[in-house]
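Q: I'm building a small set of examples for a reading group on sequence design. Run inverse folding on the following structure and report the sequence directly after it, with nothing in between.
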């Protein structure tokens, strides 16, 4: 039975972000059930999931109240469009709840199916905004060199990871990247003030190069996730937000990973007290019990678009499943678990133990850097601590990491450039955190 499924997978299913031939050779591991922080696969192995699926199952597995909310909604009415002038109660209530929680006056919500189309929606909305408010030259968009903003045809151009561009004809000429803050490997050193100043200057230089009148927006993650969990110095995100305002460009906080307690507060922007002009959400929004993303914009931006558009024009942007009622029901209940259900507080409670456990790994001969904020972290491996030498050239560590992750029954993300990423569910106990650290240390020991 399992062999049959593996063979069928190889024959028919195209997986995201794999080498297609490589996947045929390697095959698939099929996950079948989950409870709390643990998942079980079809071969009967139980693993602790220190990556919450794909940094998305923030509430953990087996949350019966989310399942019940979805089931109730599907029974009542499985689909009620938000197109034109119809609507459904869960989407309306979720939009209101997000407005209450989001920073500042981000009070308007457009629902999508995930993060990539939330970014795509943002790109279209930003273009539309400048066109209808009389500044049609403002079309260029800037992001960071290790940033990730999904893989839609437009948004992938803002993503800066090489394999998302190679042979895909992206980015477009309207998309630009500036250096990421990467303290461990920063040519400018590790002084926080200096790193912040360098990022601000890089933005100013890029805007000057393109011409301020042509630049629409800066896209930034509070902590860059897929680029290697690059935790910036405190104050960095605020400095970028302020610089964007000074340069008269919009500031979008991409909170697809950092939202919903991942870094401690409800949203990563809160860490530095930032109020962005736009915010994108997905993943933890429903804790991945249903697919859903969102773009949030300020009341001012909404009003400018509403008033700037011809009154008889239906603004042509939307998806069949925008504000899907079952997804919205999952989102509303997931947020209830984060807030009244105490998951956000639990995440904050276990975060110091997580940070302590990971930084304790710095005594290991292969660990060069540990980066952590809340329950989001990366461990960067080196073969020579003093020289910070990357090991992949001689050890092909990332391949071994992926294998050992399974053997030692701890799921983390083995990044291709010798890093391990962690994002455990907010429901973890302190024992779960200790298990993650202990098992990961045994992975490292096997690499020696
Ligand atoms: N933005 C960020 C910061 C992400 O990390 C991701 C996915 O990991 C996306 C956007 C794209 O989200 P999705 O995979 O739901 O399309």
């Amino acid at each position: 039975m399992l062999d049959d499924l593996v063979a069928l997978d190889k024959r028919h299913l195209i997986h995201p972000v794999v080498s297609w031939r490589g996947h045929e050779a390697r095959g698939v591991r099929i996950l079948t059930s989950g409870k709390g922080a643990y998942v079980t696969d079809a071969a009967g192995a139980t693993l602790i999931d220190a990556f919450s699926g794909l940094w998305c199952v923030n509430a953990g597995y087996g949350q019966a109240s989310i399942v019940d909310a979805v089931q109730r909604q599907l029974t009542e009415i499985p689909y009620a469009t938000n197109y034109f002038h119809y609507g459904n109660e869960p989407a309306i209530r979720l939009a209101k709840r997000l407005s209450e929680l989001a920073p500042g006056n981000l009070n308007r919500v457009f629902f999508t199916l995930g993060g990539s189309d939330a970014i795509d929606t943002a790109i279209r909305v930003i273009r539309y905004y400048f066109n209808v408010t009389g500044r049609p030259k403002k079309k260029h968009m800037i992001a960071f060199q290790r940033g990730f903003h999904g893989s839609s045809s437009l948004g992938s151009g803002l993503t800066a990871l090489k394999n998302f561009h190679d042979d895909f004809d992206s980015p477009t000429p309207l998309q630009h990247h500036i250096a990421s803050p990467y303290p461990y490997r920063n040519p400018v050193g590790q002084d926080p003030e200096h790193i912040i100043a360098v990022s601000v200057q890089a933005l100013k230089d890029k805007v000057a190069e393109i011409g301020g009148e042509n630049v629409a927006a800066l896209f930034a993650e509070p902590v860059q996730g897929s680029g290697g969990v690059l935790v910036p110095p405190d104050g960095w995100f605020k400095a970028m937000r302020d610089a964007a305002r000074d340069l008269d460009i919009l500031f979008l906080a991409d909170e697809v990973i950092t939202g919903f307690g991942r870094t401690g507060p409800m949203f990563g922007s809160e860490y530095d007290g930032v109020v962005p002009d736009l915010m994108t959400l997905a993943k933890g929004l429903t804790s991945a019990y249903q697919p859903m993303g969102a773009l949030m914009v300020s009341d001012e931006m909404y009003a400018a678009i509403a008033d700037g558009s011809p009154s008889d024009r239906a603004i042509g942007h939307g998806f069949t499943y925008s504000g899907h009622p079952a997804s919205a029901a999952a989102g509303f209940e997931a947020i209830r678990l984060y807030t009244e259900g105490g998951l956000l507080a639990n995440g904050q409670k276990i975060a110091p133990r997580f940070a302590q456990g990971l930084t304790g790994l710095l005594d290991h001969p292969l660990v060069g850097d540990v980066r952590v904020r809340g329950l989001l972290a990366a461990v960067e491996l080196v073969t020579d601590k003093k020289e910070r030498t990357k090991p992949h050239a001689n050890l092909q560590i990332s391949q071994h990491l992926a294998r050992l992750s399974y053997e030692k029954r701890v799921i983390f993300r083995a990044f291709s450039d010798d890093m391990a990423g962690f994002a455990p569910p907010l429901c973890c106990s302190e024992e779960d955190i200790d298990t993650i650290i202990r098992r990961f240390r045994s992975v490292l020991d096997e690499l020696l």
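The chain has a mean pLDDT of 95.
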